[in-house]
Amino acid sequence: MRFIDWLDERLAIRQLIKVMMTEYYVPKNINFLWSFGVLIVLMLVILIISGVFLLMYYKPDANLAFDSVNKTIMMDVAYGWIFRHVHAVGASIMFLLLYVHMARGIYYGSFKPPRELVWLTGYVLFVLMSATAFTGYLLPWGQMSYWAAQTITTLFEKIPFIGPDLVIWIRGHFIVEDPTLTRFFALHVVFLPLLLIIVTAVHLYAVRIVGSNNEDGEPIPKEEKKKKGIPFWPVFMSKEFFVMAVFLTFFFFLVFFHYEFAMDPINFIPADKLQTPPHIYPEWYFLAYYEVLRGFFFSQNLGLIAFVLSMFIAMFLPWLDRSPIVSGKHRPLFQIAFWIFVFDFVFLTILGKLPPTGLYAWLGLIGSIIFFAFFFSLPIISRIERKQLENGGKK
Ligand code: HEM
Fold this sequence. Notes:
This protein has helices at residues 2-11, 13-22, 36-55, 65-76, 80-107, 116-138, 143-155, 163-171, 178-210, 225-228, 232-257, 287-295, 300-312, 317-320, 332-351, 358-390, and strands at residues 25-27, 229-231. It is mainly alpha-helical. The protein has a two-stranded antiparallel ribbon with strand order 1-2. The protein is globular, with a radius of gyration of 23 Å. The N and C termini lie far apart (50 Å). Protoporphyrin IX containing FE (HEM) binds at residues 34, 36-38, 40-41, 44, 98, 101-102, 105, 108, 110-111, 115, 118-119, 122-123, 125-126, 129, 200, 203-204, 207, 212-213.
């Protein structure tokens, strides 16, 4: 107890515990989708710990990287394969959790005032996580690692004026080579995880300050927080430990029995700079964006602009969706648009792995247009709902 007092005097530790845990009230009218944030924190911890163990044997050298992963870690080091499976499956599951977490936020309007900063810090986390996954994918130095990095870095060439120089700067060479591997390594193991940890802390703090949204999008005044909510610690977390246990069972089932979905077979072939694989595609979680890149097949430049826009457009949701009705639960028109968007995202993900020719190319174009139509329809839907409300509808 003395130690806590000592810390409290110097770091106001009790105040911090109150703000972050014991006096943070989670609304009662939420569903299981509000568990995903905590699962993402758990997944981040698992990825960092498994990553540190992999780092003990990984060699960031173009001549050694492939064997250090596929031979040393997978075969020679005791239980090394478990850490590799945990890390690879973990990355895939992280994106699944993130997409559900983001879709929950979109549906229930969790990005609307006063939660804009919760949304924006969350979006920064999504971009950081994407960069972490992209840089990490090169490290095993397999065929798909190599060609995915080569393809994506080539896209920067299209940037006017600075493009060609920028690509060489990113790669550290004219093509993806040893210097590319070492700089991606530095980003993947030091810089990006550090940023992820810092921004996660800000994200969690922001949620505490404005409070969690709820199924009805109903604002809860400060004085009613106790009545309409339960304390995060220990009440909410006791339920959350159960959710974690169920999640970990599912996660380790995948790690031990179905890890193949997170490891492309072509990546078990060492990188060959002279042999391009017949189809180059990213991991499943980037396929929808990749399909938007290919979707505008008649113009490479348009495809590139669409690709960049597709990655960032959701960040602007607080300004696109200005409807006074917060939760999608009370917005029939929005619900139609939302579910079309979700199916379209899945559709684009499926198309992303198919060759972009004939009918598939046209379907990719249609899917990409629907993707953007969702975001651009939001100001119109908001206006209709505002009018309905002014004419006496209920909020
Ligand atoms: C490393 C990544 C992330 C972590 C660790 C994380 C963690 C959390 C946690 C623990 C919560 C509170 C519990 C909950 O509401 O589920 C939360 C809420 C929230 N997060 Fe995230 N999150 C991450 C990424 C994102 C992303 C990518 C977005 C969206 C772009 C986002 C948007 C939100 C929003 C809007 C809330 C408030 C939800 C509400 O009040 O209804 N987060 N996050």
